[in-house]
Design a protein that fits this description.
It is found in: Cytoplasm. Its EC number is 2.5.1.7. This protein folds into 2 domains: about 200 residues, UDP-n-acetylglucosamine1-carboxyvinyl-transferase, Chain; about 210 residues, Enolpyruvate transferase domain (UDP-n-acetylglucosamine1-carboxyvinyl-transferase, Chain), CATH 3.65.10. The protein is built from 14 helices and 24 strands. The strands form 6 sheets. It has a 4-stranded mixed sheet, covered by helices on one side. A 4-stranded mixed sheet has the order 2-15-17-16. The chain has a 4-stranded mixed sheet with strand order 4-5-3-14, covered by helices on one side. About 50% of the residues are buried. With about 425 residues, the protein is of the alpha/beta class. The radius of gyration is 21 Å and the shape is elongated. The longest helix has 13 residues. The protein binds ligand EPZ. The site of ligand EPZ has 22 residues, from helix 1, helix 5, helix 6 and helix 12.
């Protein structure tokens, strides 16, 4: 097994270029199931989750290649509609194939994704919405077996769900008639999916709001134009936190600052300077790192995917910070590992109280999920001594060229074999 060895430091400098957003690329790649032509997508991050999805599309009989951050997809040859367990269990966002496969082929079987480290991750809202659109949904031996001709319907999501919204937007695209979606997620990744489908000829209104009207094509596939994936706001936020945790000036480039408003506001509240210039953001050191109160919520609120990174950062604040994780029931897996580095964190249900200012000591720690593992790297950068972060396959799912980028900032970080 590989691990990352990280030397604690008190200084970073330089800039990193941010890749395309994994959580935008996933639905965008799946949306090629709705295409009548070859789909060319640039600025695709070359991370494990994307590679897994590309292999899933190949398993379904589509042509799918990813080279030099460019995906070429042609699903006109797609000849089977079963997304098998051995792939879905590796990448739960494979559930995104359910809506488009059903909408186009009127039948599909997609393995239930199962839970993950951060929570049970149900898909009940995805299934309820498809049933509202006329689908017959059965659960058989761990698979969602879906059939039927989808018709436009009015769907109100009980909870805001990112991939639930994406799944049903794609299902509605080829359905017959108008679908009205209420309480839709407004994440930039959902917005880009809607924009790409509109460019492909889909009549969709309300993009960027929590209410969408989609006029389905009644089975007619769409003519996709070429497009580039939006920058990864979570990757950008992670590197800004790397600079912040060692109180250094660093920059992130090729980003969309407007996607990071909540994150930048919290960094400023903690005393850091933020300079925004077109597609780059520069973090300036704080005179004193102040404690912070964070409540995770749906976009444009503070993103849950930045919660672990800010918990690590709060360890350096001069005072007590509070983090209230509202989206997932078990997204504090990084806490026990941070405690092993000398952190002072108390958990009470979904609320974490972090007492900053204590010295962090290097340790062997274990990654548990994608974002928790990035928080461990940040803490290791600020700790005294040499830390090792194990099970870094979690990181490789969502961060491309991670150690090269940290090295570009001056970190002493090496990938080694156990
Ligand atoms: C997406 O997951 C992201 N993944 C997650 O990023 C992100 O943390 C999450 O949205 C929240 O922003 C991708 O986009 C691939 P949800 P998703 O459905 O869509 C409940 C990362 O690190 N819910 O918005 O699975 C659910 O349990 C990953 O990149 C239901 O109850 O999240 C949660 O409490 C981690 N029933 C809340 O809604 C459902 O049918 C939000 O989940 C669906 C969701």
């Amino acid at each position: 097994m590989t691990y990352l060895q990280i030397e604690g430091t008190n200084h970073l400098s330089g800039s990193v270029t941010i890749n395309g957003a994994k959580n935008a690329a996933l639905p965008l790649i799946v949306s090629s199931i709705l295409a009548k032509n070859e789909v060319k997508i640039s600025n695709v991050p070359e991370v494990e989750d994307i590679k897994t999805l590309i292999s899933l599309l190949k398993n379904l009989g589509a042509k799918a290649d990813l080279n030099h951050h460019e995906a070429l997809l042609n699903t006109t040859t797609l000849n089977q509609t079963t997304a098998k367990y051995d792939i879905v269990r590796k990448m739960r966002a494979s559930i995104l194939t359910l809506g488009p496969l059903l909408s186009r082929f009127r039948h599909c079987e997609v393995s239930l994704p199962g839970g993950c480290a951060i929570g049970q991750r149900p898909i009940d809202l995805h299934l309820l919405a498809l049933e509202k659109m006329g689908a017959n949904i059965q659960i058989k031996q761990g698979y969602v077996v879906a059939s039927g001709t989808l018709k436009g319907a009015e769907v109100l999501f009980d909870k805001i769900t990112v991939t639930g919204s994406e799944n049903i937007i794609m299902a509605a695209a080829l359905a017959s008639g108008k679908t009205r979606l209420l309480n839709v997620a407004k994440e930039p990744e959902v917005v880009q999916l809607c924009e790409v489908l509109r460019e492909a000829g889909l009549d969709i209104k309300g993009i960027g709001s929590d209410e969408l009207e989609i006029y389905g094509t009644n089975g007619e596939c769409l003519e996709f134009k070429e497009f580039a994936v939006i920058p990864d706001r979570i990757e950008a936020g992670t590197y800004l936190c790397a600079g912040a945790i060692v109180n250094s000036k660093i920059s992130v480039c090729k980003v969309n600052p407007s996607h990071l408003s909540a994150v930048l506001a919290k960094l400023e509240q903690m005393g850091f300077g933020i300079i925004v210039e077109n597609d780059s953001i520069t973090l300036l050191p704080a005179k004193e790192i102040k404690p912070v109160e964070i409540l995770t919520s749906e976009y444009p609120g503070f993103p849950t995917d930045m919660q672990a990174q800010f918990m690590a950062l709060a360890l350096r604040a001069n005072g007590t910070s509070i983090i209230d994780e509202r989206l997932f029931e078990n997204r504090f897996m990084h806490v026990s590992e941070l405690l092993r580095m000398g952190a002072d964190i108390k958990l009470n249900g979904h609320i974490a109280t972090i007492t900053g200012g204590k010295e962090l000591n290097a340790a062997d720690v274990m990654a548990t999920d994608l974002r928790a593992s990035s928080a461990l790297i940040l803490a290791a950068l600020a700790a005294k001594g040499t830390s090792r972060v194990h099970r870094i396959y979690h990181l490789d799912r969502g961060y491309e060229n991670l150690e090269e980028k940290f090295k570009a900032l001056g970190a002493n970080i090496t990938r080694l074999e156990e």
